[in-house]
Structure formats: structure tokens, C-alpha cells
Amino acid sequence: MARILVAEQDPEARHFLRDVLELGGHDVVEAQDGERALRAIGLRRVDVAVTELRLPGETGAGVVRAAARFDATLPCLVLGGFGDLAAIDEAMEAGAIGVIPKPTTARQVLCCVARAYERRLLAREAVHGRLLDGIVEAWRASQPTRC
To answer: What digits encode the pLDDT tens for the residues 40-57?
Structure first.
């Protein structure tokens, strides 16, 4: 199905997310800090990024900003709780598309990731459609005019 980046410093939470996503049929790339999350985004093709708000070395908002620079169609979700409202706002302003609540359930994780992945597929279709439109227009312009 989809390749999901999980950036979470707490090993127990990261393993929970990995297990849930793998049981949901996804491939998971793990990162325990911001540097590794950014490296994973740059080196691997991921379909959705899920990041904690307060990672060592980088904030969740920083990961979201970097992901947008690397791939504008990469949807990012942040993990956050009620006490993280300012950090959630910052991440949403940086381009995150949603919040997975902390604490969370397997159902919430799978639902949020499914919606984000659907958004990724739609964005890819839109990009390909625009490219195809440009090719068709160029072909039409190259054709002789008929009377």
C-alpha cells in the first residue's frame, strides 16, 4: 500500500505506530529524531509523513516545512495532544494537513493516514494531468492548421 514515515522519539509510541500501520498493510520507515526524519524524506520515497511535534534536533513544524520543500505533494500529519496547541498551530501553518491526537488509537491512526494517502494520490493525479495537458497543447500547436 503506502510507505509511511513515522518520526517519533519515544520508542514505545514509535513501535505502536509501526505495528498499527504494518497491520494496516503499509510499509513503515522509522525515525527517532528530526535529522533522521529529514534524511528519510530526502532519501526515500514516502507517501505520508507522520511526525511528533517535539523531536530532538528539529521540531515537527520544521520537518513539515522541509518536507514541503522536498515534495510539495507529500502530506504531513502531526502527533499532538491538548497541551501542544501552539506547536500544532505552528505545524499546521507550516503545511501539516492534520493532527493525530495523543494519546491515540489504532483506528484514528489508520483513518488519518488513509485520508492523507488519498490526498497524496489525488495530488499525483493532478500533477500528471497538468503535465499531460501541457503535452497535448504542445502537440496541437505543432500540428499544421487545417482550413
So the answer is: 998 878 999 999 999 999
- Location of C-alpha cell 495530488: 123
**Which own/partner contact pairs does 33-36 have at CB distance under 8 Å and 24+ positions apart?**
33/7, 33/9, 33/57, 33/58, 34/7, 34/58, 34/59, 34/62, 34/63, 36/7
Residue whose C-alpha cell reads 506547536 in the numeric block: 87
Query: What tens digit of pLDDT does each residue of 81-99 get?
Result: 888 899 999 999 999 999 9
Domain borders along the chain are 3-122
The distance from CA 35 to its chain's CA centroid, rounded to whole angstroms, is 16
Q: What span, in angstroms and rounded, lies between the C-alpha atoms of 11 and 86?
A: 24
CATH hierarchy code of domain 3-122: 3.40.50.2300
pTM of the full predicted structure? 0.85
